[in-house]
Design a protein that fits this description.
- The protein is an alpha/beta fold.
- It folds into two domains: 179 residues, Rossmann fold (3-Layer(aba) Sandwich); 85 residues, Orthogonal Bundle (N-(1-d-carboxylethyl)-l-norvaline Dehydrogenase, domain 2), CATH 1.10.1040.10.
- It is 48% helix and 14% strand.
- The protein has an eight-stranded mixed beta sheet with strand order 3-2-1-4-5-6-7-8.
- The chain is globular, with a radius of gyration of 19 Å.
- Pfam families: 3HCDH, 3HCDH_N.
- This is 3-hydroxyacyl-CoA dehydrogenase.
- Pathway: Lipid metabolism; butanoate metabolism.
Length: 286
């Protein structure tokens, strides 16, 4: 199957990143969210990011205009899924939310369409089980920020067909991504490691071992990480990381128990860069 049209369900940080990357690489993109404000904010951020790339000489003006013209905004999921070849769900890491979206996509998308979840930890088998097309369900885990990060993890469920895997790999490659195929297991590969590293860094901050800035500096300079684990948590979103850890703790045991300080940050509304403050201060919503 030649994928031409993609629906991205969810216009948060990940959804808009996937939509931007797909549009830049020639796909027709329907970006969907139930919140009109979220769609407008996402499109504005995509436009801003593309303009920055033009100013830096990374894109031409023509490329930017073409990419923006490839994106259409819809807040009704039935309309968004109506004529697509692939739907990529990029909603919050809550199983019930993802399953509800997949039920709707199964109802509204064409029979040939593949349904993908961008989950970083959860089972595509469990998500796909609520549909009548489990063989066409897969996880395509992109990384934040999607336009810059090279990897897309491909995770098949128990019923996922070989042809679905091949199509998912081909789409990811056309979007400029390298792929790895990972056996379904909670957390997959990078998220499982990142959850441990970030949680331990937050435990050290809680224990007063060092300041947040010095913990990140030590990891970047001592272990050659491109970004400190605490800054990375802010980029991912502290609420998202908390849900990841709770899921991993449930299925993989005590070593993934979320740091108590993480609960405090989330309760205080300090969710990371997307709201302007998390472990660090950023000053404005992104």
């Amino acid at each position: 199957m030649d994928v031409k049209k993609i629906a991205v369900i969810g216009a948060g940080v990940m959804g808009r990143g996937i939509a931007q990357t797909a549009a830049l690489t020639g796909f027709e993109v329907i970006m969907n969210d139930i919140e009109e404000e979220a769609l407008i904010h996402a499109y504005s951020n995509i436009e801003k990011d593309l303009k920055n790339s033009v100013e830096k000489g990374l894109l031409t003006q023509f490329d930017m205009k073409q990419a923006l013209s490839n994106i259409k905004l819809m807040n009704r999921i039935d309309e968004a899924g109506h004529s697509v070849d692939l739907a990529i769900e990029a909603a919050v890491e809550i199983m019930e939310v993802k399953q509800d979206i997949f039920k709707q996509l199964d109802e509204f998308c064409p029979s040939h369409a593949i349904l993908a979840t961008n989950t970083s930890t959860m089972s595509p088998t469990e998500i796909g089980a609520v549909t009548k097309r489990a063989s066409q369900t897969i996880a395509m885990h992109f990384f934040n920020p999607v336009p810059k990060m090279k990897l897309c993890e491909i995770i098949r469920g128990i019923e996922t067909s070989d042809s679905t895997v091949s199509i998912a790999v081909e789409v990811a490659n056309r979007m400029g991504k390298e792929t790895v195929q990972v056996n379904e297991f909670p957390g997959f590969v990078p998220s499982r490691i990142n959850a441990l590293v970030g949680n331990e860094a937050l435990n050290m901050l809680m224990e007063g071992v060092a300041s947040a800035g010095d913990i990140d500096k030590a990891i970047k300079l001592g272990l050659n990480y491109p970004m400190g684990p605490l800054e990375l948590m802010d980029v991912v979103g502290l609420d998202t990381r908390l849900r990841n850890l709770e899921y991993l703790h449930k299925y993989l045991g005590e070593k993934y128990r979320p740091c108590p300080l993480l609960y405090k940050f989330v309760a205080a509304g300090r969710l990371g860069k997307k709201v302007g403050r998390g472990i660090f201060e950023y000053g404005e919503r992104v």
